[in-house]
Write a structure and sequence with these properties.
By secondary structure, this protein is an alpha/beta fold. The protein folds into two domains: 21-39 and 289-415, Aspartate Aminotransferase, domain 1, CATH 3.90.1150.10; 51-285, 3-Layer(aba) Sandwich (Aspartate Aminotransferase, domain 2), CATH 3.40.640.10. It is 40% helix and 15% strand. It has 15 helices and 15 strands. The strands form four sheets. The protein has a seven-stranded mixed beta sheet, with helices on both faces. The chain has a four-stranded antiparallel beta sheet with strand order 11-12-15-14, with helices on one face. Helix 13 crosses helix 14. The longest helix is centred in the last third of the chain and has 23 residues, at 289-311. The N and C termini lie far apart (68 Å). The structure holds pyridoxal-5'-phosphate. Pyridoxal-5'-phosphate binds next to helix 3.
Length: 416
């Protein structure tokens, strides 16, 4: 048999972000999408290792570090952690299959593209979804959620699925206000929080909040490549799952409650990514939660200062109308009719080395997004804003001149 051989060596890109571009840009490319986010060197190095055999105690220690990291970050020492070889959509499915009996009802407050996508997936799995209306530019209105629960006297709604930060709109909803509104109704529905875009960016105190489940993924605030999805579950949600007759296997918590790592993962654990995630938790612990969240607020304020300055040109604007709801993770900037967002992104990426995201769902073609979560600092944010400002000028998009200047002012004057 003739073994096929390649005539020329396969091109090996230095980084994933080098792939779509025809030319390599020297220096560091800035990945300013709201996920995946840049991976710190410490995390990359932790992943540069041979796999371990499944009986190696270092593998159990790696898994335990990830579980402890999540419990610690969420301030929920007794919660169960289930880690999966999946992404955020997989974590959505985990929640549906474990918590909701076939045909049962769930309330998903409208936050935009991500509440829509979660609703579509939940319905596709045979559950009934009730939505509160999405109000473009605004966070969830807790009173509307409370009303929907009050209108359910038979308590058919099993859970409320809340997208904390909708990554498409750049808006974060007020979780304690939502919890208080739910409590006031006396409705027993579980509170399930999608924290994919907010975890490790802004505090989520699961026990104090009375959240029954928090789900997330590795590739956003947690600074690890995509490939791990997880849920952190309290006793009440576990008990609901226990009574749920829905047929399930790979996602099933009951099968995964085991000290054996092969069972915990329903097969071989994704150990390379787990090593990266454990290293990321080490970085988070070393920085300290208070500093981590303060840094995210500081960088978000710098981005918002630049966007406010750009908006003075009359063309660009914040999608989030209420400044208090603008997320610390991602900023969504609207563009007028006729602006080609994809062309803007291309110039920003290929000429100025800054990858930004486009609009999603109803905002496709009408907005671009700057991710400022995870492994960022003042210099990377200023570089990112400078690259975007340059791309806006190349594209002839009317924008105020002092974006970068105001971002610097913001960082210089920021007392936090
Ligand atoms: C990114 C994201 C998801 C989906 O995660 P994937 O890993 O892309 O499947 C879900 N919810 C929110 C809020 C997100 O930001």
């Amino acid at each position: 048999m003739v073994v096929p051989r390649f005539a020329a060596p396969l091109p090996l890109p230095l980084a994933m972000s080098d792939l779509p571009s025809p030319t390599r840009i020297p220096g560091r490319r800035f990945l300013q999408s709201p996920g995946p986010t840049p991976v710190p060197d410490e995390v990359l190095h932790a992943m540069a290792r041979q796999p371990m055999d499944m009986g190696d105690p270092r593998l159990d220690a790696t898994i335990a570090a990830c579980e402890a990291g999540l419990r610690g970050l969420l301030h929920s020492p007794a919660a169960e952690v289930f880690l999966y070889a999946t992404n955020g959509h997989g974590a959505w499915e985990v929640v549906v299959e474990n918590l909701l009996p076939p045909g049962s009802r769930v309330l998903i407050p409208g936050t935009g593209h991500f509440s829509d996508s979660w609703s579509v997936q939940t319905e596709a799995l045979g559950r009934r979804v009730q939505n509160t209306p999405w109000q473009p530019g605004l966070p969830i209105n807790p009173a509307v959620v409370a009303q929907a629960l009050q209108d359910d006297p038979l308590h058919e709604i099993v859970a409320v699925f809340v997208v904390h930060t909708d990554t498409a709109s750049g808006i974060s909803s007020d979780l304690p206000a939502l919890r208080a509104a739910m409590d006031a109704t006396g409705h027993p529905a579980l509170l399930v929080i999608d924290a994919v875009a907010s975890l490790a960016c802004t505090p989520i105190d699961m026990d104090a909040l009375g959240a029954n489940l928090v789900l997330g993924a590795s590739q956003k605030g947690l600074m690890t490549p995509p490939g791990i999805g997880f849920v952190v579950v309290d006793a009440k949600a576990l008990a609901v799952a226990e009574r749920n007759p829905a047929p399930r296997f790979y996602w099933d918590w009951r099968l995964r409650q085991s000290p054996l790592n092969y069972r915990k993962f329903c097969g071989t654990p994704p150990q390379t990514l787990l090593a990266g995630l454990a290293a990321a938790f080490g970085l988070i612990e070393a920085e300290g939660e208070a500093a981590l969240y303060a840094r995210h607020r500081r960088l978000a304020r710098a981005v918002q200062a630049a966007v406010a300055a750009w908006a003075e040109g009359g063309a660009l604007g914040f999608f989030a109308q209420d400044p208090a709801s603008r997320s610390v993770s991602v900023t969504t900037i609207t563009v007028p009719e006729g602006v080609d967002v994809d062309a803007l992104r291309e110039v920003a990426r290929d000429r100025f080395g800054v990858a930004i995201a486009g609009g999603l769902g109803p905002l496709a073609g009408k907005a671009f997004r700057i991710g400022h979560l995870g492994d960022s600092n003042a210099a990377t944010i200023l570089g990112c804003l400078g690259g975007i400002e340059a791309a806006l000028r190349v594209q002839g998009i009317a924008c105020g001149e002092h974006g970068l200047r105001r971002a610097i002012d913001s960082l210089v004057e920021d007392a936090e």
